[in-house]
Amino acid sequence: MVQDFFREEYMLNNAIDSCLKPYIALIHGITMGGGVGLSVHGQFRVATEKSLFAMPETAIGLFPDVGGGYFLPRLQGKLGYFLALTGFRLKGRDVYTAGIATHFVDSEKLGMLEDDLLALNSPSKENIADVLETYHTKSKIDQDKSFILEEHMDKINRYLKRDLNYIYSFGKTILN
Questions:
Q1: pTM attached to this predicted model
Q2: Fewest CB within a 10 Å sphere: which of 78, 112, 113, 119?
Q3: Between helices 79-86 and 164-175, what is the axis angle to 10°?
Q4: Which stretches of the chain are assigned E, i.e. beta strand?
Q5: First-to-last C-alpha distance (Å) of the chain
Q6: How many structural domains is the chain composed of?
Q7: How confident is the model at residue 124 (pLDDT cuts 50, 70, 90)?
């Protein structure tokens, strides 16, 4: 039964990743576990100021599922490694800045965004990208806020090249 669940979960993640039709995930609210798997593998991923992204299983030493071993190392620098080792939670615009979301839209505009996407006569990837980019460009919430880990990224990138004991002690100092 467990094997069936994981097989189907990973098959769904793969289907989303290889889907030829445009796939849009709205990362609005808590996005953990299966929600991560349903969103991060899509071509278009829209975060809002209410987004909360995490891989909490990693904080207790479990390997990230839902394809975390695939998408986390592809984030900027060593950020994915840091998230995988610490279970650190990203919120709002930081989900976009980290590269998990492809766009950021103010939550109050999501209904209009959905309407505009549904109104597309023949929704190509280019048309969808144009609509999303229009909303993304107009989003002002936390626009000038720096990335929550910005001041630590040089250290994260430098120290995550070292051995695991050193990495663990470094992670504890950032999280405290």
A1: 0.87
A2: 119
A3: 80
A4: 24-27, 30-32, 44-47, 52-54, 90-91, 103-104
A5: 40
A6: 1
A7: very high
